[in-house]
Write a structure and sequence with these properties.
Elements: E1 31-32, E2 38-42, E3 52-53, E4 60-61, E5 66-69, E6 78-79, E7 84-93, E8 99-107, H1 128-137, H2 150-153, E9 164-168, H3 178-185, H4 187-201, E10 206-211, H5 215-224, E11 231-236, H6 245-253, E12 268-272, H7 273-285, E13 291-297, E14 305-310, H8 315-321, E15 329-334, E16 341-342, E17 356-361, H9 378-382, H10 389-397, H11 401-406, H12 417-421, H13 428-443
Parallel strand pairs: 1-14, 9-10, 9-12, 10-11, 13-17
Antiparallel strand pairs: 2-8, 3-5, 4-7, 5-6, 7-8, 13-14, 15-16, 15-17
């Protein structure tokens, strides 16, 4: 039997079907964005402790040089994405909506790599620990948006053995096509990255999950796994949020992550296809994570494109390279329309988790106020986690955060399916984020 013959169109219960709008960029090959004249590189580009600066103002820096060291085990180092001089270290706007400590580098136009980067053509002979150390030192984090430090995911406790690795190429978020293009343009690198992940975890079975509306990506990845029977390409049903790791695990492995649990609790590790490609670059060529694929899209930009952009590139530059804003541009979102975060300035930089920049025109931005819950239960039907969003919303609206916690608030991963189907336009995702922050304050 062929290695790539698999069951197709697996899925999960719940979910919604928002308009994809991927035709704006899915057919457009990725182009390299111009090297920025000035990059702003946040020391917080990952879940966990911020990195600590290793440089001083005025210091000469080379591309790929480490400029921030890990602030703890759940942390990741940060590297310069251009060569030049450190111009500032201070608080600058971040895509999450606050100012964070960042390092500003003025490019010298030379774009020279730091010396000492080691190529390893025979990386197959390295031990799992050696490979994991290379991943950690390259500053690799989850590039699907979660930005969890990858080396931490690759360090499960002994009592939780992992036997399955799943690469997430579903890219279910509307508008975004950066992962799609990556699978068309760098399929072999992705698969080599997956093999490295499998070796680190001592896993014999790997999957690549891709939504079935990307047949060219499915075919591209199938060709890349030819001759590798331990890896299967697995088309999944087109439904949002199919790319959420718990949903992908359910669809492909048939396993359910327990409430409050992690994928490693059921023997699974999920990584984004972009993360796998970055792992290959780090292990084979010694390159740290200093650039990523970014989709700049929406009907609020004149010429939507897919870019290979340096970390620290300002949103304003990529939007200009995509033709600039249209006259009707009304909202800029980091990410997609379902889980992305609206931006108040275009001075924010691309970070490791920036998969897309979406610009919506006035005609696609709702200004309708929200109303009271009408108890229609559409949100309950749509919730992929089988929660009761309507009740959570009522609790949070009244400030009853502990009651919301009792109804499994912490299992919500903020996919926005409930908000999408709500006829009363209730902002449940914002409320959930607020409640989690308030509960975290009490815990601290």
């Amino acid at each position: 039997m062929e290695a790539t013959t698999v069951k197709t169109h697996a899925t999960f219960s719940g979910g919604v079907h928002p308009a994809g709008n991927k035709e704006l960029t899915a057919h457009k090959p990725t182009v390299a964005a111009a090297v920025p004249k000035r990059v702003v590189i946040p020391l917080s580009q990952h879940i966990g402790a911020p990195s600590k600066p290793l440089v001083v103002i005025g210091q000469e820096i080379k591309k790929g040089e480490r400029i921030g060291e890990s602030g703890g085990f759940v942390s990741a180092p940060v590297h310069a994405s251009v060569s030049g001089k450190v111009a500032a270290i201070g608080n600058f706007p971040h895509v999450l909506g606050m100012d964070v400590t960042s390092i500003v580098i003025e490019s010298d136009g030379m774009d020279e790599w730091v010396s000492g980067l080691r190529e390893t053509p025979d990386y197959g002979v390295l031990s799992p620990d050696e490979l994991k150390k290379m991943v950690q030192e390259a500053g690799i984090v989850g590039m699907g948006g979660a930005t969890f430090p990858t080396h931490v995911k690759l360090s499960p406790p002994k009592e939780k053995p992992v036997d399955v690795v799943i690469l997430n190429g579903a890219e279910c978020e509307p508008y975004l096509t950066s992962d799609h293009r990556l699978m068309l343009e760098k399929p072999k690198e992705i698969i080599e990255g997956l093999k490295i992940l499998m070796k680190i975890l001592n896993v014999k079975k790997g999957y690549v999950g891709i939504e079935a509306n990307k047949p060219d990506a499915v075919e591209s990845m199938k060709k890349a796994v030819a001759g590798s029977p331990e890896i299967q390409v697995w088309p999944v049903m087109v439904k949002y949020p199919q790319g959420a790791e718990k949903m992908l695990i359910k669809a492909i492995a048939g396993r359910t992550v327990p409430a409050g649990g992690l994928p490693m609790d059921i023997g699974v590790v999920v990584q984004n296809v972009g993360t796998a490609a970055a792992i290959y670059d780090a292990v084979r060529y010694g390159r740290p994570l200093i650039e990523r694929y970014v989709t700049v899209t929406g009907r609020g930009v004149k010429d939507p494109k897919n870019f290979l952009a340096r970390i620290g590139t300002p949103f304003s530059q990529l939007i200009e390279e995509a033709g600039g804003l249209t006259e009707s541009a009304a909202k800029v979102i980091s990410g997609g329309p379902m889980m992305g975060i609206s931006q108040y300035t275009l001075d924010v930089p691309v970070i490791k988790g920036t998969s897309g920049i979406l610009v919506l025109p006035e005609s696609e931005v709702s200004t309708r106020p929200y109303g009271p819950c009408i108890r229609c239960a559409r949100c309950i039907d749509a919730c992929p986690m089988k929660l009761q969003p309507s009740l959570l919303g009522i609790f949070i609206e009244k400030g009853h955060y502990e009651d919301a916690r009792e109804y499994n608030l912490m299992d919500c991963f903020e996919c926005g399916s409930c908000t999408f189907v709500c006829p009363a336009n209730r902002p449940m995702v914002q409320w959930v984020k607020k409640a989690k922050k308030e509960l975290a304050k009490k815990k601290n």
